[in-house]
Amino acid sequence: MRHGNKNNNLSRTKAHREAMLSNMASSLIIHKRINTTLAKAKVLRSFIEPLITRSKPVDKKVEDTHNRRIVFAYLGNKEAVTELFKEIGPKVANRNGGYTRIIRYSITESPKPGARRRDDNADMAMIELVDYNELLLNVKSVRPA
User: Fold this and answer.
1) Is the separation of the CB atoms in 35 and 124 below 8 Å?
2) What is the pLDDT of residue 70?
3) pTM of the shown model
4) 81-90: long-range contacts, CB 8 A cutoff, minimum separation 24
5) From CA 126, how far away is CA 104, in angstroms rounded?
6) What does each of the 145 residues of the chain score in pLDDT, given as a tens digit?
7) How far is residue 101 from each of residues 35, 98, 113, measured CA to CA in Å?
8) Best CA proximity match to 51, nearest among 103, 6, 17, 100
């Protein structure tokens, strides 16, 4: 029985789940947008948002070595950690949360063939970093207030 267990195990062992999430998080940080199943995207969001919070600059005098080491322990990818602290952290510094967006591919709204995965009919979704979607950022600047 799973009383009080609120995390989704994704039918994987702990080691497999942690390795998968660290690889997906590194890919999301490097590419800013990935396509995956809806269940994996929801778990990835809860995995990566605390890491992005650690990468935000608090003060110019505060050394971020400790936070870098903690994030590296989760990700295990130097390039992803560097990009997270150099580029993403300062860009989301004034945001209080909600750094990622999950866009679910809907069957009824779009005739896109990727709405469900072909082999097992799993719901597909795209997870992206909010401040890196140029299309939505340009639409906000064009609309009148």
Assistant:
1) yes
2) 96
3) 0.84
4) 83/29, 83/30, 84/29, 84/51, 84/52, 84/55, 85/55, 88/29, 88/52, 88/55, 88/129, 88/131, 89/52, 89/55, 89/56, 89/57, 90/56, 90/57
5) 6
6) 889 888 899 999 999 999 999 999 999 999 999 999 999 999 999 999 999 999 998 876 566 899 999 999 999 999 999 999 999 999 999 999 999 999 998 765 555 555 888 888 889 999 999 999 877 767 665 556 5
7) 12, 7, 21
8) 100
Tokens, residue 20 = 């998968």
Q: Which residue has the tokens 């009824």?
A: 108
Of 30, 21, 22, whose CA–CA distance to 84 is shortest?
30
Task: Please name which of 8, 15, 3, 89 lies closest in space to residue 46, comparing C-alpha atoms.
Answer: 8
Q: Is 41 helix (H, G, I), strand (E, B) or coil?
A: helix
Angle at 113 between CA 111 and CA 47, to 5 degrees: 110
Count of Cβ atoms closer than 10 Å to residue 129 Cβ: 19
User: Residue 72 and residue 76: Cα distance in Å, rounded?
Assistant: 5
